[in-house]
Amino acid sequence: MTAQLAEPLGASLCPIVAVVGATGTGKSDFALDLVEALATQGHRAEIINADAMQLYQGMDIGTAKLPSDQRRGIPHHLFDVWGLRKEASVAEYQSLARATIGSLQSSGVIPLLVGGSGLYVSSVIYEFEFPGTDPALRERLENRLEVEGREALVRELAEQDPLAAVAIDSRNSRRLIRALEVVMLTGKPFGAGLDAQRHRWQENLVVLGLHSERDALTPRLDDRVEGMWRQGLVEEARLLVSEGLREGVTASKAIGYHQALAILDGAMSESEAIENTQALTRRYARRQVSWFRRDDSITWLGSKDDRRVTVAASLVLSALA
Q: Distance between terminal CA atoms of the chain?
């Protein structure tokens, strides 16, 4: 029997709840379970996507996007909002997510921000303003990248901004250059604005992290990648080519899709693509763990702990009191 929902709480009382953690730790199912647990206590909650790649239309298999028929009738926001040719923008995501949060809170609905993209999550729940750009400086950095090589810029970023160096894939030249540009423009680390020690955007905040031991997570991630190939990732990529996948600065570089395109181009065999995707997925998970472990406000829950939903619901209900 469904519980009677409480009257709207009002924006000042309704907390933001964030569910974070490495890929493969079960955040999507946990979030659904948490929404249902809160509903039994008379409180509505809805899910807001905080996975950068799940913002893209049609990128379903390779991002492990939860199919609509598996969302248990719970509203999901900010999925499939960007076309494949669009370049990712944390600043734009921040604006979209905060607007969605405000809309839900004004209706007495608890916003549940769910995802493992550290920069995206932190940009929403912590105060952070995005500096402008300097075309001349950007050009100089691009020239340095070409002359000195990526590793020289990676070392410089690690020295000047260790937090950003952890969060940013060192092979992503665009984001590497952007981080260095911000450091040089502002005199402050790009990552400083996203540090867990910074001010919260809203004080009423509950951050829940799902954790799996590496020995358990690694084979799960490898199996997940193989499952994506069985589900038809290469065929999905083939279909998305006509929608602009190849032209997408961000989408074409996404883990799994980049390798699927390489198969279509004859540049990789299937086994090479799977192994490469598995290695990059494991590396990405390590970066996620490093990023979130810096935030001592996160309450960590074991991904296989039978009490994780009960504990999480209790923390959220306490924030509502």
A: 25
What is the number of other CB atoms lying within 10 angstroms of the CB of residue 222?
A: 18
Pick the CATH number of 16-128+201-214+295-320 from 3.40.630.30, 3.20.20.140, 1.10.3720.10, 3.40.50.300: 3.40.50.300
Segments in 109-213 forming alpha helices (H): 118-125, 135-148, 150-160, 162-167, 173-186
Query: What long-range pairs does 235-239 form, CB within 8 A, spacing at least 24?
Result: 236/58, 236/59, 236/60, 236/61, 236/62, 236/260, 237/62, 237/261, 237/264, 238/264, 239/58
- What torsion do the CA atoms of 148, 149, 151, 157 make, to the nearest 10 degrees? 70
**pTM metric for this prediction:** 0.83
CATH number of 216-287: 1.10.287.890
What's the pLDDT tens digit per position in 50-64? 999 999 999 999 999
For residue 113, which of 183, 14, 223 has the smallest C-alpha distance? 14
Task: Please enumerate in sequence order all residues whose Cβ is within 8 A of that of 90, keeping only pairs 6 or more positions apart, or say none.
Answer: 119, 120, 123, 130
- The residues near 217 (Cβ < 8 Å, ≥ 6 apart) are 22, 24, 25, 285
Q: How far apart are CA 234 and CA 222, in angstroms?
A: 17
Could you say which DSSP state residue 268 is in?
S
Which helix H or strand E contains 308, and what residues bound it? helix 308-320
What confidence category does residue 46 fall into, taking pLDDT thresholds of 50, 70 and 90? very high
What is the rounded average pLDDT for all residues in the chain? Answer: 90
Rounded Cα distance between 71 and 47, Å, is: 10
Residue located via tokens 């810029």: 153
Interhelix angle for 150-160 vs 173-186, to 10°? 40
CB–CB of 189/163 below 8 Å?
A: yes
Q: What does the pLDDT average to over 20-44? A: 97
pLDDT digits (tens, 9 = 90+) for 134-143: 888 988 999 9
Amino acid letter, residue 217: L
Determine which helix (DSSP H) or strand (DSSP E) holds 49, and give its type and residue range.
strand 45-49
